[in-house]
Amino acid sequence: MKQRKNKEVSSQDLCQLVAKGMMEKKGQEVAILDLRKVKNAIADFFVICSGTSDTQIDAIADSVEHEVYKAVEENPWHKEGKTNREWILIDYVDVVAHVFKKDRRKYYDLEELWGDADLTLIEESAA
């Protein structure tokens, strides 16, 4: 079984850091799926957002990694999708970040697929 290195940071706190990283680069429609009450869930949280271009998706993914490392010095356990930049997945074991190109997000529809999870939408701050 895979385990996170920094167990002092709760999955809920880690989830907030991931969302912050997404918001830093203007990730759109940031959503948190709380999977803790979902039977056989593979993580505690999914944090999902959309981007409009390859460049933005790449920047969002880098920002997520930067925010998490800056706050808790934790690197992802696994990453994939950086090459084709349509869906970048960053796995922190208890928290999995999904950075989608807008049309790919609609296609995979994780929010519907994991419909039993509690869904929280993050409001964009007025800057």
What do these coordinates show?
The chain is of the alpha+beta class. The protein has a single domain, classed as Beta Polymerase, domain 2 (2-Layer Sandwich). Helices cover 35% and strands 26% of the residues. Strands 3-4-5-2-1-6 form a 6-stranded mixed β-sheet. Helix 1 crosses helix 2. It starts with 10 loop residues before the first helix and ends in a 6-residue tail after the last strand. The model has no long low-confidence stretch (mean pLDDT 91).
Mean pLDDT: 91
**Percent helix:** 25-40%
Can you count the helices?
Answer: 4
Given this structure, which CATH class is correct?
A: Alpha Beta
Order of helices and strands: HEEHEEEHHE
Specify the CATH homologous superfamily.
Beta Polymerase, domain 2
Question: What is the second-level CATH architecture?
Answer: 2-Layer Sandwich
Q: What fold name stands as the CATH topology?
A: Beta Polymerase, domain 2
In what order do the strands lie side by side in the largest sheet?
A: 3-4-5-2-1-6
Low-confidence segments: none
- Summing up helix and strand content along with how strands pair, one would put the structural category as alpha+beta
What is the total domain count? Answer: 1
| Separation of the first and last Cα atoms | 42 Å
* Percentage of residues in strands: 25-35%
Global geometry:
globular
Number of strands: 6
Q: What does the radius of gyration come to?
A: 13 Å
